[in-house]
Every structure is written in C-alpha cells, then in structure tokens.
Design brief:
The structure is a single chain. By secondary structure, this protein is of the alpha+beta class. It folds into three domains: 4-121, Tumour Suppressor Smad4; 129-214, Phosphorylase Kinase, domain 1, CATH 3.30.200.20; 219-395, Transferase(Phosphotransferase), domain 1 (Orthogonal Bundle), CATH 1.10.510.10. 24% of the residues lie in helices and 24% in strands. The protein contains eight helices and 22 strands. It has helices at 129-133, 175-185, 221-226, 232-251, 302-306, 314-330, 355-364, 375-395; strands at 4-6, 14-17, 23-26, 33-35, 45-50, 53-58, 65-66, 69-70, 73-76, 81-83, 94-98, 117-121, 134-139, 149-153, 159-169, 197-203, 206-214, 219-220, 254-255, 264-266, 272-274, 281-282. The strands form five sheets. Strands 1-4-3-5-6-9 form a six-stranded mixed β-sheet. Strands 2-12-11-10-7-8 form a six-stranded antiparallel β-sheet. A five-stranded antiparallel β-sheet has the order 13-14-15-17-16. β7 and β8 (69-70) form a beta hairpin. α4 (232-251) runs antiparallel to α6 (314-330) and α7 (355-364) packs antiparallel against α8 (375-395). Residues 7-12, 101-116 and 121-126 have low confidence and may be disordered.
Length: 396
C-alpha cells in the first residue's frame, strides 16, 4: 500500500483508517502512516491483530509509549493514547487508537482491519503541507483552481501532478477525504496512476483537499482517436489492462467517475494508464462537496445521461472504458443509438472488427447497467478476444 501522509487540520482531529495488517507507523515512504516529525523513524511502530484484539509492536531502541508507559509489545484498546516520543518531550507526537469510528458505516471492500482507526492530534503545525512541500510549476490541462498542476516536491525534486479540490467547509466532517485517500492509495496497478501523496490542509474556508500522482509520460487517447482506427489486438490489450486496474479500484470501493479518452494516456511501450482522480469518490460516502460527475455525453453511461444528478457506479466506469475502446477501434468519437442510448457495433462506423471484440464491447455498452459485466468480467471477455486475435495472427 502507498503511504498516507498526515497533516493537521487546525485544532480538529483527523482520522486515518488502518487498512493493512500489520500497519506501519513512521516517517519514511515505506510506512503506511507517515508522520512529519524527524524524530519518528521508519518502522517506529506497527499495529497487528493479536489474540482478542490489537497489538502495538515497538521496534528496538525507539521510544513508544502506551498511556505514558514505555512498551516493546502491548495490547491496545479503544481510546488508548500511543506516544511516539517521550511524554516529557516539549512537543510529543501522540496518536489515539479508536476501535470504532461513530458514523463511519461499513468499511471499504478489501479492508483487512476493518474497524481500527487512528486519531492524530497535533501531529503537524505550521503552513499547509501543499504549500510547504510543493512548488507549482504550471497548469497541465484546462484552467481554474481545480485544474491539475505540474508541481515539484521541494525535498526530493520529484515532479508530480497535483490536484487540489474545493475545501471541506469549516465545521463539516473531513473524514471522508481521508477514507478516500487511503482506499485509492492502496490501489497499485500498472494501468493506474498511483496516488503518492495527499492530505487535508487548514485554510480560511475550511480543509483543503489535495492529492498527488506521478507524472505519466504518454499521449492522451483522444489524440490517437483523431488519427484513425487502431489495430484491434492493440486496443484489446490496452483495454484488458485498464479493466484490471478498474477492478482493483472497484474492489476497494472507489468509482473513477470519468473514464474517457482524456483520462487514458498511451505510453510508447504500448501500455495504457488511467489518470485523473478529480471526479473519483468512495461509494460509501458519495461525491465530495463541489464535485460533480463527468458531463461528457459521448462517454457517460445512459443511466447517468438520463438522470444528470445520478452518481455513476462501477457499471458507469465499465461503460466509459468500453466507449473509449469503441472510439480507438473506430477512429472517431462514439455516437449513441436513438433507442436507449447504447452504442452501435464498431462496424457501423466503418472498420471491420472481429466478432469476439464486438461481443465484449456490446455487453459492456449495454444501456442497462444491471446487464453490464463487472470490470473483472469485462477483462475476462477481453482476454478471450485477445486469445482469439493472437490465434488468428499465428494462423496467418
């Protein structure tokens, strides 16, 4: 799992779900919970599930305290305060272990320690991390305060794509953003842009939400669409990888919400990467305030086009991926049929496409979301189509 970096939201506590077993607490990127304090080192402490509850394991010489008592191994219970620096320190780093989080509801799919939460109190004070840690170099696409920006991490000099979203208003719960960050940061797949950093920073209006992903070198798929039809086996291989990435997101409860050629980058090595989490959300929480579903009618699922206020579900992501594949195969943007809003066969746009590919797309583009395959099943259909195409190529 990628680390979740924690910063202070004013004087209000912020909570991070423990989703790995064990859950590492430290300062370096190898840890699940990164605390911005130089006194906290990698593998400073970890939480594991033990007999009858949770156990805090402290590493060697590091000072770890439970309710003021130094420990190397100790059970932790609801409400226990975990100190990562001595209690007499002028600015101790402490966490509070919560066995339950009121109002949290069901945990995201794939959560291994489903009810364990850490509440951080005064972990970091000072300027917002996004300002202190990143230098904005300029916009990538579009304009406006929420447009993705190219930025450089001041310490490592690593370039990232920085996305900043409307703040959570003062007094409103901010836990949903941290739950989302944890879920999406744990979805590591070659076909997904990886979330490498993110957080909540205190601003005048409330808590500013932001995340960072690596810079992916590639051409947007919409540019390739403009160049004409692409070979079916190339498209199928890319779609299959993207479907596997979507399946991982969906298994963690995340809906991408904007699967279009604008958010698919094609690398020189032939691989494809899904980027752009600006409209993604955790299904259990819904979209964030100030966030709206994608409105591109060419790639939006019919059920969302029919009800503009309806949130897309995983089936909407599958439709968007299949519509993107349709466009790459046809060499043009899709055009919905009059009855029901589905798409015609790719062959109706001109290029001849093998039946196995048309069948996989037809199912994923079904106007009824209930009838569409899951991302996993769509991937299986694409694997069958790829095998058929490879066999045909070998025979020729």
């Amino acid at each position: 799992m990628s680390p979740v970096h924690l910063s202070l939201l004013g004087d209000a506590p912020v909570r991070v779900p423990v989703v790995d077993d064990p859950f590492w607490i430290g300062r370096d990127p190898g840890c699940d919970l990164c605390l911005w304090d130089l006194r906290v080192s990698r593998k400073h402490a970890r939480i594991e599930r033990g007999a009858g509850g949770f156990v805090l394991v402290a590493e060697g010489r590091h000072g770890v305290f439970v309710n003021g008592r130094r420990v190397d191994l100790s059970p932790v219970r609801d409400g226990d305060e975990i100190g990562l620096t001595p209690p007499q320190d002028a600015t101790p780093v402490s966490l509070r272990f919560l066995n339950t989080l009121p109002g949290a509801g069901a945990p995201p799919p794939g959560t291994s320690i489903s009810a364990a939460w850490l509440e951080a109190e005064k972990v970091r004070e000072g300027p917002p991390r996004i300002v202190a840690d990143y230098e904005v170099l300029g916009p990538l696409t579009g304009d406006g305060p929420t447009a993705p920006r190219l930025a450089r991490e001041r310490t490592s000099r690593r370039d990232v794509v920085l996305s900043v979203f409307p703040p959570v208003p003062v007094g409103a719960p901010a836990d949903a953003w941290l739950r989302f960050l944890t879920a999406v940061a744990g979805a590591e797949h070659p076909a997904l842009a990886r979330v490498v950093d993110g957080g909540l920073d205190a601003v005048t209006e409330g808590a500013m939400r932001w995340l960072a992903t690596p810079v992916v070198r590639g051409r947007p798929a919409w540019l390739r669409v403009r160049e004409g039809p692409q070979a079916p086996i190339t498209v199928v291989r890319r779609l299959r990888a993207l479907a596997a990435g979507l399946h991982l997101l969906h298994s963690r409860g995340v809906v991408h919400g904007a699967v279009t050629p604008s958010h698919v980058l094609l690398r020189k090595d032939g691989s494809a990467v899904l980027v752009g989490y600006g409209r993604a959300f955790l299904r259990r929480d819904g979209v964030f305030e100030g966030q709206t579903p994608v409105r591109d009618p060419l790639y939006v699922a019919p059920e969302v086009r029919a009800e503009p206020t309806r949130l897309p579900g995983p089936a909407g992501d599958v439709f968007g991926l299949a519509a993107t594949g349709w466009a790459l195969l046809a060499g043009r943007d899709p055009f919905p049929v009059a009855d029901g809003g589905g798409l015609p066969p790719v062959g109706a746009a001109g290029p001849a496409v093998p039946a196995s590919v048309e069948d996989a797309l037809r199912r994923a583009l079904d106007p009824d979301p209930v009838q569409r395959p899951t991302a996993e099943d769509f991937g299986h259909a694409l694997a069958f189509a790829e095998a058929s195409l490879a066999s045909a190529e070998g025979a020729s």
